[in-house]
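Worked example (supplementary).
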Amino acid sequence: MRLFLRRQALAIGAALLLGGGAASAQQLTVWHDLGDNGSKWFGAMADAFAKTHPGVTVRPTNYPTDQWFGRSIAALNTDTAPDLIFNNYERVIRVAAQTGKVMDLKPVLASVADKGFLGEDDLRVATYDGRMIILPVQRVQMGMGVRKSWLDRVGEKFPETWEDAKRVAVKFSTQHPDGDPNGTTFGFGLEAAKPRDLIHMLDLFVFGAGLKHTLIDPVGNIVIDEPKHALVLEEFLKTYTSYKVVAPDTINYSFNEMYQVIEGGKAGIFRVGDWNVGKWDTQAIKGDFLVGAWPRFFPELQNGVVIGGMRGVAVPENAPNKALAIEFAKFMLTQEAQQLSLSIMGAAVRKDLDVSALSPRQQFFAKPAGALYAYDFPESVILYYPELEAAFHRKLLDAIAKPPADWKAFIAQLAGEMRELSKQMAAKKG
Amino acid sequence: MRAMGGRWRRESVFYLFALPFAALTIVFGLWPIALSIQVSFTGSATALRAVPSYVGWANYATVLADPLFLASLWRTLLYAGLSVLANLGFALGFALLLNTAFIGRMRGAYKLAVFLPVVTPDVAGYVVWRWLYDQSFGAVNAALKLLGLPAFGGLAAPATAMLAVLLAELWHHAGFYMVIFLANLAVVDRALEEAADIDGARAWQKLWFVVLPQLRPAIVINLVYALIQFLKTFTVVITMTKGGPNGATNFLSYYAYQFFDEARYGEATAMATVLFAIVLLIAGTVYALGERGRT
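After joint prediction of all chains, the assembly is encoded as:
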């Protein structure tokens, strides 16, 4: 009997000890929209993090971007938040604005010793309303991709100027560069359906040409009828219409349809983001593409690669394991985690990383040689910008659906309308 | 007293059997509607919290002052009206045709051809329709070109997008309405038609004065169901156009969905409630008118 009791006591003690051990094991949840590759990256970082934090695991959950918004906002508002959320700066802005529950990470960054690689621009695109809403982890870079075999077939080189790009696009649309005489191919693969789709494409044209603002400057001046901006806008709209170099259904294209056209071998010139290269090197386009800067519009302005923003990690105020989440967020800036980011996702913020294992196309982004132009993110300073952009988008889609006879007159009139609307919205928002 | 006890026992058995279904209706039918209406009176940021902040009619005021919402509402009413006419017109015409001896032995095949789209998964069907309308490789324009006819703008042109969507929905739904009409036609009193023949009535007179009045139950049911269906049109939009081009097919359900997507729950549920009230009002009125005519 005594032996039995002793054994029981031992068993209970062991169970308590094991239970205590299990209690120290923690799981961090992170929500992102980077697809399977993103989950693979978080898995690799979790393994590295566990070396200094035994027992800590990370459970990444991937959501399509649209769902990521709704879920993140709902979760933060209902105190069911994950430990970390990861996405582009402008998307985290929306979560922060609609919940007020994204932690200010300024003190966290202050406690990081090794952060000299973060420049002023990097910190600017991490700050909203005076608060650092993300720790910058990956620069989002975008250039122009062109199908190499198509260039060879039509006897062209990578287009350096906009005139080159137009000429190549027309050849791609008319000379069956895919080798199928009965097939249909297009010069450009673009998108237009939602406000962000079309304006995002316009951003590429504008910033790639070396200009600083797409619609409005930080002081609130409408810029679309300034001579250089007007020229780029006119060419942009003609690309969707009279040049006949895009699929006629482009007006209804969003991300998915645009990618179907690009990856399905229907378009020869397209946007390439640093996050696309890894996949397109081995799947879909299978490496049959060249990457370069967006073409030059003006001889006096250097064209360049567009920094479309910053992807970063945010910590909800109501994260269940907030202290550990902060530790993991800080870890994402270490050389080890950044190297994983570069190797798996093709993007990082540190400059002291080994790029030798990357493909030439990945190296184009990892070791940029030319000019880099960053978005101005008007939504971070102009409160009514999303509504203004939506109205601008409607007007542009109107013009694409029913092209005006005189584009210059259209742009001049549109600028006037945008000024009036901007004034009204500014007054309404106080 | 004894008779009352027996009646109570009989009724209690009825209520006992009805109880699970009543409970399910309340839990899965009425409660979500009530909750949605409740959310429409809260601020979006707090809508899902245990203690939301109530903003009165503010969401309704915002929604009703939004010109895009009003444009979407008008577009939805127009689309629903046109779709009801097209679907019921086609379904009735086809059902009457199938009911004649003229069709012969192919009747079963024709019925199947029109009804098959009803059981086809709607998203799959609409994806195929999107390809049919494609401006670069679509079959619709290829056929028109072959016939020497001008190209159809399909989903790419604001002027034709609504018609393109309507045709796709007609393909998907008309078979269902046709089956209802056929069921009603099967119980039409043939003696009345024979009497009309003896009286020398022409074909259209027989149809108008003899057959159609007997089809009133099917017409009312189809009308109410079609109104509800097309006022809430959603799947075809999200699959084929995403409300485009430039808002030409941005019907109310999809417009509200975009607000849900941005977690603007207060405004989204206010829109849903307005749509719910409109559907209830129109469908209820049509049903009441149909019932009154019958009595």
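Two points are worth noting when inspecting this output. The first strand of chain A starts at residue 26 and ends at 32. Chain A touches chain B at residues 66, 69-70, 73-74, 77-79, 94, 98-100, 184, 186, 193-194, 247-249, 251-252, 254, 394, 397-398, 400-402 (CB under 8 Å).
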